[in-house]
Write a structure and sequence with these properties.
The complex is a heterodimer of chains A (267) and B (262). With 267 residues, chain A is mostly helical. Chain A is built from 11 helices and no strands. Chain B has one domain. In chain B, α2 packs across α3. The chains are: A mainly alpha (267), B mainly alpha (262).
Chain lengths: 267, 262
Amino acid sequence: MSWFRAIYSMEFRRIFSYRVDFWISFLGSVAGEIAVAYFLWDAIYKKNQATEIAGYSFTMMILYYVFAAFGGRIIRGNERMIVATDIYDGGLTKYLMYPISYVLVNFAQALAYNTLTLVQFALGIAAMFLLFGKPAELDLEVSNFIMGISTCLVASCFYFVLYVTIDYIAFWADTVWSLSVMYRFVAQFLSGIYVPIEMFPASFVKLVYFTPFPYIGAEPIKMFLGRSSWQQWVHVNIMIVLWIVPAMFALHIVWKRGLKTYTGVGI
Amino acid sequence: MIRYIRLYANFLRFSFSKAFEFRIDFYFRILMDIIYYAVNILFFKVIFLHSNILAGWTEAQVMVFVGAFIVIDALNMTVFANNFWAMPSLINKGNLDYYLLRPVSTLFFISFQDFAANSFVNLLIAGGILVWTMIQYPDPISILNLVLFLFLILNGTLLYAFVRLLFVLPVFWTHSSRGLDMMFWGFARFMERPHQIFYGAVRIILLTVLPFALMASLPTEVLFSSSPWPTVGYCVLLSCVFFISVLGLWRLGLRSYSSASS
């Protein structure tokens, strides 16, 4: 697997050659997400003089969004549409001639990006606690972080497989950018990144849990907040893996069919 | 002026023929924006399951606000988004040369040349949603307030474009393709929330240097206000300031432009 290591380190070098972009986009998106959530929920809690909404105190609600912002970046990884670009410009051809799996090449690149999102997570959470202090309601247990981060990484595998499957639509479609954005909107809304799932009507929550999305958003966030046990951790991760299997199958089918239509135009 | 109108008519013609060449993308984009609108409406519907009022607005008023910002988003996606997305690449690769040689304003040309015909369909849908939210609003709205509201939505669309350009144009110096633009998208979330929820320094910033509050939230406030004129005057004044700033930054940028790859 030395080629895997080589691609992984090359991707690192690529990201670091655009490091200003990388950090600016991180700071801009995370700061925007957290600040908007803070002011929105501050207005709601104050107006209703509420101490708790859907089981969340104001502090826990803000922490929910903090972990959603940082954890969400680990889960979503690098949404760069590398595959679609390779299909459009014919760059895929060179990978077809190598004795390596193309999807593993993409996975190595995604893994490099994920490693850096983990660093961002650690730095971001540490900076938040240094700046604003550790909230009294939050148990800073190492086990919560181990559960949360490991689940985010497994969830990122599921997100990656679906993302690449959508990218493979590029074999047939002129552009797939809009499909990827659609996927992000739906995944983020149904996974509780925009608003905690407990706030939805109960019947809707039941339905959502028949999809993979709560397991790749709300559930890992709850682990960071100390609201999950190890049994729940096992359950959530099994559920994600169970969803990865059909997703991999779909990826394989779309890849096989797509290759039949691939002409290498652009090379 | 006539020459520019004729030029824009040509841009429209080419853009529509291009859109029909890429039919799958045409439909995907329509679906994408419908999902974006649905997610935003559902977001506030869920919030109002737990609160009767948000920043002094009822659910019906917030829905009008949502209608306003999705119309602004649709207008931007239709008229400006493709052009601003391509701008860093034109500058970095030196392709701006070909535009500088043309006997029309380069900034006009590269800001308006690509009209997103597929997003135009979404603009009609977004407009429909705005009309629907206004019909749902139970109290009467005066004609004057309505006219001022629609005018400020157009003003907000331009202001949004000016602010985005201020984030894109530093590419003349940074040569970095996406960093500041991505930062803009992070800040643009402030447009999607009522401005009354913000306070302190953030509120001042949103009303002045990063005027996201002036794009959809203040226009919606004008719709329900009994004394709208000071707000209207302020919104127009700030748009003029930002327009002048964009022109200034563009001219400065052109001085630094080195035509890298030509």
